[in-house]
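Please, structure for the following, as tokens.
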Amino acid sequence: MQTSSPQQVVRVAKALSGEMRFRILQVIAKYSEIRCGELSAAIPEIQQATVSHHVRILTEAGLVQVREEGPYHFFRVNREALREHQTTLTHLFSETT
């Protein structure tokens, strides 16, 4: 497994630093795939437009993948990107002997 570039590490870290984005990612991760309306319903305290904004940031960071089917958008976690981020952080902060 390869490691991420420093720019990608920062992009992912920034995406995960938002409490609402972190929560949205957790909700998406509970499903193999979730429709936008279902995601918004799972987090009723924020409006659908705000959910879409946060999902866009997570998508740009490579953490969420979007599939369009007709008028619907389906989201799923990019688990490979999460593993790559984890590997990179482990590599960057490991002790050298």
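Residues 19 and 34 are 20 Å apart (CA to CA). The longest helix spans residues 79-92.
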